[in-house]
Amino acid sequence: MNARRIGAILRKELWEYRRNRSILVAVAIFPLIFLVQPVILLLTLPPTTATQLSHEHLLLYMLAIPVLAPGVLAAYSVAGERLQGSLEPVLTTPIRSDELLVAKAIAAILPSVAVAYLVYAVFLGFVLAFVQPGLASALLRGGDIVAQVLLTPLLAGVPTWLGVAISTRAGEPRVAQQLTLLASIPLAVLTSLIAFNVLPASAGLLLVFGAALLLVDLVGWRLVLPMFDRERLITGSR
Amino acid sequence: MTELTTATSARAGSAAPALSVERLSKRFGDRLAVDDVSFEVARGEVFGFLGPNGAGKTTTVRMLGTLIAPTSGSAAVLGIPLTEQSGERIRQLVAVMPEAPGLYSRLSIRENLECFAALYATSDPRRRIEEALRAVHLADRAGDTCGSLSKGLRQRVALARALLSDPELLFLDEPTAGLDPVAAREVHELVAGLREQGVTIFLTTHRLEEAERLCDRVAILNSTLRSIGRPQELRDRLFSRALRVRTRAPLDDPASVFVGLPAVDDWRPDGPGGYVLAVSAPETAAPAVTRALVAAGADVLAIAEAQHSLEDVYLQLVNEDVEAEGRTR
């Protein structure tokens, strides 16, 4: 794969996001939801609930951010190009289909992961500054923080490939975004089950979970590539 | 328009034709968009590809630009056989300006060009972008957002984008569609300049006067290739040569004047005092016709060889297809 061509599309995508208000709003809404809810919860919890809190993994609840945010961007990737009519000019250049898809995927993952880390940082800052020390120490556990940091980019890959795949088949970006969100829900439910200790967040489970995600992330482009049919995307027929 | 610097010397040594197309066909479901098309385009040639809407012009460009695969037949682009594996290599050497500009509307002109310069791995992209912008007279608008541009300006940006990679072969799909006459003329000048620098240009157009002015040869396509050659050759092939005669007053007995003259095969009236004579050799017929008219006491206003335009050729061929289609129904 040619890094320069991947970089060109990546840079272009980031320029476009910056100027596309609807994309920015759509991406920002999930982090806000998953930040505000725990903040309100923590402000209303009495200190006596610290023991109960220590059995849950509230931090991991925010793993839903990298599950839901990148899909919005990824769903726009191919359908957005088709909407603008810019797909054909891009495909007349030497870029290969796999390079284009990888560039689009990175462009969806990078800002989503950055936003997720930013939200975590804000949340941690809030907890340290405003939450009662007993509750804060029950909440902030080293293992959870490490899991959160490591799982975030791995989680972002799955909805990204789902979004890119759906985007290659959808005629309209909004439809692609809605379908991607729908398809990402099972993964969001899974992270919530771990966060609320329905599935025990043991190191073993998280390791297996992380390994499975890594595998999907790495082979994702191979799974999506056959769906990126240049001829169908350009002519609308096959 | 300003000239661009191109790798002319490197092009001069290439021996293979720019395009070699052999029995190329493309089917979309039940519809045969391009049927058994064969032609060659020489290096440095400006080749016009004409045809009505739906004739398969864009499909042919897309096949040769490696965007879609042919159903059957073969082709070589700049000597490289058109295969699934050769797409990347071919696309590095050619540029395609599609009919729709397809710009990133939220990005500026310069940002659009920067993206494409990087995709082509253009050496010294900054200089190349400046040259392309100057070539299409957009250097002072490089910061404008593409979404704010008129259709004509977008078309110019698309042309600048196609020039970025210094292509050996440039496919221009309706490059002057939507341009005002001044801008269209500038595009014509740019095409002429590129030809002088040895760039091969494959031009699809509806503007027949554009094809006549710019193209060394033209092909007329209507799913199948109907005719190919220099515009003058096509005219000679399709139309018999003719003289147009105008006299101050209608002749009393034109048949007695025109019938039997050397090299005059037939005649017909063409308005009051006007006559069209089918001739085999205008240079022989014209003096004989002049003498006959003077002898008949006619005041001769004009005798000239009738000129058929490329449009006449085009309409004749397309109408033949329409009539043939009507007969088969």
Summarize the structure.
The complex is a heterodimer of chains A (238) and B (329). Chain A is an all-alpha fold and 238 residues long.
Strand proportion of chain B, as a percent range, falls in: 25-35%
DSSP helical segment count of chain A = 12
Helix content of chain A: over 70%
CATH superfamily of the largest domain in chain B, please? Answer: P-loop containing nucleotide triphosphate hydrolases
> What value does the Rg of chain A take, in angstroms?
19 Å
List SSEs of chain A in N-to-C order: HHHHHHHHHHHH
Name of the top-level CATH class of the largest domain in chain B? Alpha Beta
Can you count the helices of chain B? 12
Low-confidence stretches of chain A: none
Distance between the termini of chain A: 27 Å
The main pleated sheet of chain A reads as: none
Tell me what you see in this structure.
- The complex is a heterodimer of chains A (238) and B (329).
- Chain A has twelve helices and no strands.
- Chain A is mainly α and 238 residues long.
- Chain A has one domain.
- The model of chain A has no long low-confidence stretch (mean pLDDT 87).
- Chain B has two domains: 8-235, Rossmann fold, CATH 3.40.50; 240-305, Alpha-Beta Plaits, CATH 3.30.70.
- The longest helix of chain B has 19 residues, at 310-328.
- Chain B has a six-stranded mixed sheet with strand order 6-7-8-3-9-10, sandwiched between helices. In chain B, strands 2-1-4-5 form a four-stranded antiparallel sheet, covered by helices on one side. Chain B has a four-stranded antiparallel sheet with strand order 12-13-11-14, with helices on one face.
- Chain B is elongated, with a radius of gyration of 24 Å.
- Chain B is built from twelve helices and 14 strands.
- The model of chain B has no long low-confidence stretch (mean pLDDT 87).
- The termini of chain B are far apart.
- Classes of the chains: A mainly alpha (238), B alpha/beta (329).
- Chain A binds chain B through residues 2, 4-5, 7-9, 11-12, 15-16, 19-20, 84-96, 230-231, 234-235, 237-238, and chain B through 28-29, 59, 62, 65, 67-69, 88-89, 91-92, 95-96, 98, 100-107, 111, 114-116, 118-121, 158, 161, 165.
